[in-house]
């Protein structure tokens, strides 16, 4: 008689169907989220490899490992891959895809086929961009400024632009899907102000995705047309203006940074209440702040162009608006802090990443205010100060939030617990490595070291060595989760539906959830983060 | 839903109006009235666009969300154009 | 007559009304993205028109107003037939739906034929930007920018028309296969929204390219 397995696994979205076709042709938002995890992980490590090579080169003041031309290609490809193939899709297309329907009580997104198509389109764009890389790379910087990109660069600019253009369609599809889903697929009783903050932040992100990305598309198209047909759209000889390219490029690319940070904030807004056992402080303000960030974020792009030849009046206007856009972000930081105040704090890994986010994002955000001041910007623009600023937000912010979110939602996604001790150690390594890498760069920039240079004066040597040391530590910190998370999927301890005792519809389903998310459509009768009610229901007093 | 959203009559009058406005735009274009030319041409184009949206695209009968989406697109376009143009215009101040 | 197809309620939706409203919302959001896509080009036109008013007006005077105006009327006509097609779908009249969809396609094809005729005439006049470009008067290089934008903007519009023709054709095929009824004809409505939007874009293209320089005709 064959022994009966004691621990039979309930049918869930992972084991319901098998085989590669059931994954590659899935319409299940949860599986699509996992497909995206695979893609962005590959791109993250590819972009990270370029960063490591750059930091190796910068160990010495002269061009010892790479020629300056090769270095130009490295920072360009690092930027392109990290911005468009990691940061922008990182949280929305993985955790967003997986949890937006669950959090609103729906059984999928509004347009599942569009969702699957977006993954294929994304990978097609990535493949074309990697093709440009393999064929020799691009050296224009991720910003593709004209006339270098249109006239003088001899690298694979058009191919890279095409890859990004195609990936842009994936962004638009995702944003469109999320907006339609959040508007039309909420469960009965799930009114707008009962939505988890994760949803508000992703909604704001989606608005930016659909309104800004098309402008990137048309800008890249115009650049490519000028390059291929040699008809000078941005060429002064024909009455064109290279600054117009910059206006159009940054009209997208500034809101793009909010596409990158708002989802990070979405994750933090879920983690902090759970690990403080308190509702999110000032829910309405945080929700409205998300929307303000999205809207005001469209009005500040000129701050990337202060030394490009903007009129001084225009520059003053953009400077003022850039100060304004910091306010809603600050409101969020205050409210997360107030949520923790007098809360019952647990120091699990997701919370470590969340607290790290709050501190590092604050530093990054405040240095943004330095840059928004016209006089200061003239001194530090195009230096390592700017690089440190945006890495504090993108890496100290978004990447930490991504890791925090992955750990937080890991039990729900996989039905397994990750090893907590090793995870906390990795979080610490990441935090130390990150600060060692990027804090010296603030100093370097302030002292005058320009960005995008393979060589530098000898007086900057020590700080660069520190930064590279930090980068190696940071790399280790990122590799650990890759291994222990994959390990835990097979060998980790099994998780119940709600290991963190969090509120939210997503935690009411099994871990992993069934394919249709909920046996019965949930009906919502109260606000989110209702830990009070949870304590009553559990009889904890 | 066997009840049509908009009647054939309304479509026909919209069609006639659009043709009429096209004719008007063209005829007015022949007048040499300086910068008013542009304003009138764009103004009439906007009226035509509104007619197409309201009647052919059923915008008057759609949900509030749809109307917000429509206006958002237009407003964002105006934001993009006006803030950029302000830079170019104010360089000579 | 064949049994009309029943409405397919997709898994993720609870009611047919929710499905239809979501699809409509989705299409309008897509159209908003198209506004921003074309918008970038309108931005470039606005800026360069500000920089080089004389050259742009001269370039506009060079356009063929007859063909432009006829094309505008043709496209408006096609929007009319498209609206009537949606009307037929709403009343469940499949034959009329095919007829109006076909008329819309035909008018769209007429538009494209006239447009490409215009392109050919521009080519003969050496108005195609590039090394072979030639334009009378001192503003030639600035006028070339006008034509760069003209070809890109009307070209992008024409590409959208081609895609629209494809969408209309697929609607005709699906109608003949019996997919649409008075209860369910959402794809036809969405196709209509797309088609009307492409018409709206042309309305603005007509204004900025053809009308601006009209007052110079005959001078």
Q: What do you see in this structure?
A:
The complex is a heterotrimer of chains A (541), B (93) and C (219). Chain A has 541 residues and is mainly alpha-helical. Chain A is built from 17 helices and no strands. Chain A has one domain: Cytochrome c oxidase-like, subunit I domain (Cytochrome C Oxidase, Chain A), CATH 1.20.210. The longest helix of chain A is centred in the middle third of the chain and has 35 residues. The model of chain B has no long low-confidence stretch (mean pLDDT 93). Chain C starts with 15 loop residues before the first helix and ends in an 8-residue tail after the last helix. Chain C has one domain: Cytochrome c oxidase, subunit III, four-helix bundle (Four Helix Bundle (Hemerythrin (Met), subunit A), Up-down Bundle). In chain C, helix 3 packs antiparallel against helix 6, helix 4 runs antiparallel to helix 5 and helix 5 runs antiparallel to helix 6. Chain C has 6 helices and no strands. The longest helix of chain C has 37 residues. Helices cover 76% and strands 0% of the residues of chain C. With 219 residues, chain C is mainly α. Chains in contact: A-B, A-C, B-C. At the B-C interface, helix 1, helix 2 and helix 3 of B face helix 1, helix 3 and helix 6 of C.
Describe the secondary structure blueprint for this structure.
The complex is a heterotrimer of chains A (541), B (93) and C (219).
Chain A: H1 20-24, H2 29-57, H3 68-90, H4 92-104, H5 112-134, H6 148-152, H7 157-184, H8 197-229, H9 242-276, H10 283-296, H11 312-340, H12 349-372, H13 374-380, H14 384-414, H15 420-447, H16 461-491, H17 531-538
Helix pairs in contact in A: 2-3, 2-4, 2-5, 2-16, 3-7, 3-9, 4-7, 4-8, 5-7, 7-8, 8-9, 8-10, 9-11, 9-12, 9-14, 10-11, 11-12, 12-14, 12-15, 14-15, 15-16
Chain B: H1 8-29, H2 36-56, H3 64-90
Chain C: H1 16-51, H2 53-61, H3 65-91, H4 94-124, H5 140-176, H6 186-211
Explain briefly what this protein structure is:
The complex is a heterotrimer of chains A (541), B (93) and C (219). In chain B, 75% of the residues lie in helices and 0% in strands.
Strand content of chain C: under 5%
Portion of residues within helices of chain C: over 70%
* Whole-number total of structural domains of chain B: 2
Count of alpha/pi helices of chain B: 3
Helical residues, percent of chain B:
over 70%
Shape of chain B: flat
- Helices and strands of chain B: which structural class? mainly alpha
Beta strand count of chain C:
0
Choose one word for the global shape of chain C.
Answer: elongated
What is the string of helix and strand elements of chain C? HHHHHH
Rg of chain C, rounded, reads 21 Å
Q: What name is given to the CATH topology of chain C?
A: Four Helix Bundle (Hemerythrin (Met), subunit A)
Question: What is the residue-mean pLDDT of chain B, rounded to a whole number?
Answer: 93
């Amino acid at each position: 008689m064959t022994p009966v397995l004691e621990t039979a696994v309930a049918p869930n979205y992972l084991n319901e169907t098998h085989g590669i076709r059931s994954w590659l042709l899935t319409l299940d938002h949860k599986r699509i989220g996992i497909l995206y995890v695979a893609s962005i992980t590959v791109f993250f490590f590819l972009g990270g490899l370029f960063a490591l090579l750059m930091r190796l080169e910068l160990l010495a003041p002269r061009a010892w490992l790479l020629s300056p031309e090769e270095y130009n290609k490295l920072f360009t490809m690092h930027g392109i891959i990290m911005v468009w193939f990691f940061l922008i899709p990182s949280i929305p297309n993985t955790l967003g895809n997986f949890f937006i329907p669950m959090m609103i009580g729906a059984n999928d997104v509004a347009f599942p086929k569009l969702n699957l198509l977006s993954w294929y389109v994304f990978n097609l764009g990535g493949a074309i961009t990697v093709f440009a890389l393999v064929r020799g790379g691009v050296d224009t910087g991720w910003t593709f400024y004209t006339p270098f990109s249109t006239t003088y660069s001899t690298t694979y600019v058009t191919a890279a632009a095409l890859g990004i253009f195609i990936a842009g369609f994936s962004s638009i599809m995702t944003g469109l899907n999320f907006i339609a889903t959040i508007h039309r697929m909420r469960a009965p009783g799930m009114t707008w102000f009962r939505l988890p903050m994760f949803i508000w932040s992703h909604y704001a992100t989606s608005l930016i995705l659909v309104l800004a990305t098309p402008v990137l598309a048309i800008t890249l198209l115009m650049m490519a047309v000028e390059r291929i047909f040699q008809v000078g759209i941005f060429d002064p000889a024909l009455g064109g203006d290279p600054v117009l390219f910059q206006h159009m490029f940054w009209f997208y690319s500034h809101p793009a940074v909010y596409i990158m940070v708002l989802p990070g904030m979405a994750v933090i807004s879920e983690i902090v209440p759970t690990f403080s056992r308190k509702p999110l402080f000032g829910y309405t303000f945080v929700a409205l702040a998300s929307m303000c960030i999205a809207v005001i974020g469209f009005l500040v792009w000129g701050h990337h162009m202060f030394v490009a030849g903007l009129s001084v009046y225009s520059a003053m206007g953009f400077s003022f608006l850039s100060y304004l856009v910091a306010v809603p972000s600050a409101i969020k930081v205050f409210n997360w802090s107030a949520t923790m105040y007098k809360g019952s704090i647990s120091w699990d890994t997701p919370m470590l990443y969340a607290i790290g986010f709050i501190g590092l994002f604050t530093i990054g955000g405040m240095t943004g205010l330095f840059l928004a001041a016209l006089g200061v910007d003239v001194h530090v623009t195009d230096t390592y100060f700017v690089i440190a600023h945006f890495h504090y937000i993108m890496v100290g912010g978004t990447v930490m939030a991504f890791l925090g979110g992955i750990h937080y939602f890991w039990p729900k996604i996989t039905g397994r617990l990750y090893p907590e001790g090793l995870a906390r150690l990795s979080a610490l390594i990441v935090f130390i490595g990150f600060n060692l890498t990027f804090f010296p760069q603030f100093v370097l920039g302030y002292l005058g070291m320009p960005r995008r240079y393979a060589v530098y004066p000898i007086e900057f040597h020590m700080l660069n060595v520190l930064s590279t040391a930090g980068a190696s530590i940071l790399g280790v910190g990122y590799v650990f989760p890759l291994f222990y998370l994959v390990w835990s999927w097979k060998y980790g301890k099994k998780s119940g539906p709600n290991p963190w005792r969090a509120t939210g519809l997503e935690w009411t389903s099994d871990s992993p959830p069934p394919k249709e998310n909920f046996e019965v459509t949930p009906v919502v009768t109260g606000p989110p983060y209702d830990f009070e009610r949870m304590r009553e229901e559990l009889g904890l007093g | 839903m066997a009840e049509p959203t908009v009647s054939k009559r309304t479509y026909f009058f919209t069609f006639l109006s659009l043709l009429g406005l096209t004719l008007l735009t063209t005829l007015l274009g022949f007048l040499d009235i300086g910068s008013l030319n542009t304003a009138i041409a764009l103004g009439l184009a906007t009226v035509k666009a509104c007619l197409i949206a309201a009647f052919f695209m059923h915008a008057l009968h759609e949900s509030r969300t749809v109307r917000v989406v429509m206006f958002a697109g237009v407003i964002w376009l105006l934001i993009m154009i006006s803030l950029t143009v302000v830079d170019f215009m104010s360089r000579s101040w | 007559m064949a049994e009309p197809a029943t409405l397919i309620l997709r898994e993720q939706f609870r009611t047919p009304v929710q499905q239809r409203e979501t699809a409509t919302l989705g299409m309008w959001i897509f159209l908003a993205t198209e506004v921003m896509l074309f918008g970038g080009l309108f931005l470039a036109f606005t800026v360069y028109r500000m920089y080089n008013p004389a050259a742009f007006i001269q370039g506009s005077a060079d356009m063929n107003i007859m063909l432009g105006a006829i094309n505008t009327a043709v496209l408006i006509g096609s929007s009319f037939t498209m609206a009537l097609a949606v009307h037929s779908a709403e009343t469940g009249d499949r034959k009329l739906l095919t007829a109006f969809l076909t008329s819309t396609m035909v008018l769209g094809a007429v538009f494209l034929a006239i447009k490409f005729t215009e392109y050919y005439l521009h080519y003969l006049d050496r108005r195609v930007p590039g090394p072979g470009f030639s334009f009378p008067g001192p503003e030639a290089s600035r006028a070339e920018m006008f034509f760069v934008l003209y070809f890109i903007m009307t070209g992008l519009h024409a590409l959208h028309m081609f895609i629209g023709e494809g969408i209309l054709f697929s609607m005709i095929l699906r109608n003949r296969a019996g997919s649409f009824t008075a209860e369910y004809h959402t794809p036809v409505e969405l196709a209509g929204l797309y088609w009307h939007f492409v018409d709206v874009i042309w309305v603005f293209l007509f204004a900025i390219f053809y009308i601006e320089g009209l007052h110079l005709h005959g001078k």
